[in-house]
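ping. complex inputs:
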Amino acid sequence: MERWLGIFGVALTLVLGWTLWDASQQEWERYQEAYYRQAVRLAQKGSQKEWASNLRTEIRQVQLNGHTSVERCVTCHLGYDNPAFQNFAAPLRTHSALLKSHPVERFGCVACHGGEGRAVTTLEAHGQGAVAAKPLLNGKYMQVACYNCHGVNTLPPEATAGVVRGRQLVNSFFCLACHKIDGEGGEEGPDLSRIGSHRSWTWIYAHTVRPQGVVSGSTMPVFSLSRDEIQDITIYLMTLLDNRDRLRYLPLMAKRVVREPPTGAPAPVRKRATEGRVEFGYDGKKLFSGAGCNICHTVDITGGEVGPALTYIARKRNAENLERLLRDPEEILPGGKMPQLYLNDSQIHALVDYLSALR
Amino acid sequence: MIDIALVYKKVIRATVFAAELPGRFYRSVFRGNYPASVRQQLGAVVNNLVLHVHPTRVYNRSIKAQTTFGLGLICFYLFIIEWITGIFLMFYYEPSTGAAYGRILDLNYTITFGRVMRNLHRWAAEAMVVGVALHMCRVFYTGAYKPPREFNWVLGVSLLVLTLALSFTGYLLPWDQLSFWAVTVGTNIVSYAPVLGPKLRFILLGGETVGSDALLRFYTLHVIAVPAVTALIVNYHIWRVIKDGGLAHPSENRGADGDPVGQPQKSDSVVTTFPQVVYLELLVFLVLMVGLMVASLLFNAPLEEEANPLTPSNPSKAPWYFLGLQELVGYSAFWGGVGVPTLLMIYLLVLPYVDRRPAGIGVWFARERVVMIGVWTVILIGILVTTALGIYFRGPNWNFYWPWENWPGPH
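pong. complex structure:
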């Protein structure tokens, strides 16, 4: 009995020691120590040296929105406002010039960069930990953040080029044949109107590249899009937020409007999904691939295998039947997989002309 | 002029005083020396506030692991651990919809020992639900609820309900998607009761939906009301164990003629509570604590995104111990929400007053009780199967999925 008491007494002591050791291992302390070492080294004047050597190792944070929102990114990213750290690697590096117009004290970090502001480990703060946080926006994807506050009209075109191009691609590539965005589109796939709030950019990108790799058994086809195009589509989809996420940007935007009187430019309004739809020349053959028919249907030897081959379709369906089918697939093929494509009259006529010649 | 002899005398006296102080202090606390004789060992139990809830002597059989597996004691320890870790969490928690989730994140990310304390609180709570259920099964299968222990069984049933209430009210407090929708579903089950159901739900939530009033209400229930009632009944429950004659023992069994059957009482030797039982209880605590600490260091308590009333999670599942009921609600709202839980409660409460034949007491799976054991086991399997269905086999829209199947997404 006494022996077992001794063994488990020692075991509990060891576990408590493990807890203490675990609590004393703080990743951010290493970054702070590195920063202070460099700050002392880089200090030129005596007063700077004194300032740098008096820095304390402590968690630093920015409080926003009447102190309800806390962001501790600056605990590790200490050099963000110190111009002497231009040439250092992250996390010590100086922030870009955008910091001047977006001071951390007012905007914080998360409004633009995403991630989890309260966390103080790289894994968790950058949204890769166990707690559900979204991965940081970086590189090209920063456009999402610019667009969410500024829209497209007040920024130089290249700042939101990805959003605009992504929207054009989504609308012209007939994503809406299966997916709904803001009340418009098909029923086949899930509604994408709030996708930016529900999914991370890493998820959307991976899913668009190969849907079956992310959601097994997905019926979404693999599209022949370039890497750039998929990035732009992802950027556009990430700007489709639910009301709660959109409201997060309101306090930031309100202050901006107060400071800058309107210059006559129209207020940034989010464009409806219908705008920017690319017009085709309505050459039936080009439209067949442009509208994405070829993703499911084969003509001759090229095309998909989701729907039936159409190489000899004119033998089976006459022009009138084809037109009714394209206008409302549900009427001719009730319960079938063929989606409503929302084509206009001239598009339908061009396609019917093309298909009627296949015999 | 210094009197050497006097100084010498004073030094001696001070040394003796210092040497005697620890022993004096020990005796002042424990009302006597460390017990050496049996008589002193019996006195040690009676003379100690903590120890006097024990009988002074127990059957050797009662402290064998397979007699009780220490389940009641483990539940008691878990309750104490919940108190201590709960007080730590209360230092940081704020029951408002705007701040709650942030406080939980702070506990996880920055507060020293915050994460391990939250994990301890969570895993001890889950263990307590399991422990109380196992304890109840032990008492049933060893026939330990028969007269004169009927009322202590009733107290035990109320402790089961209070344990579930503690766990359920605590479930909402992190204010993440998981807790928000689990409590929405859980309180919906309540509202299926006829006439009173919706009113009951309104009282519980302080409104029609889960919001800031519900959070404040659940918090108050979780940290004050339910633990206070539970602590009182736990005391009553333990006190009744001695008053009802200690642990159930086969010597209490009587044959049809009213005479003792089986082994005569003398054949089971008796040990003194101090030190055997006390040390054994200490050992159970150490083992439990080591296990819980290791679990809390290795596994994090679940936490999802902040609660979003606009985006239901699909499927929305109640806490796991209510998933059997939610599974039944899938077939019939009345039977899952009201019928089955009411029948179960009635069954549990009248059981010791119906099954009172002094046979099979203190014996696992006694042959004389085969009908009662059969009924209980069927009910138990029913609960386990429906709960497992709810936990592992239900996906979006409460459709059936095998555990290895992927749910269609995005959901």
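Residues 284 and 293 of chain A are 11 Å apart (CA to CA).
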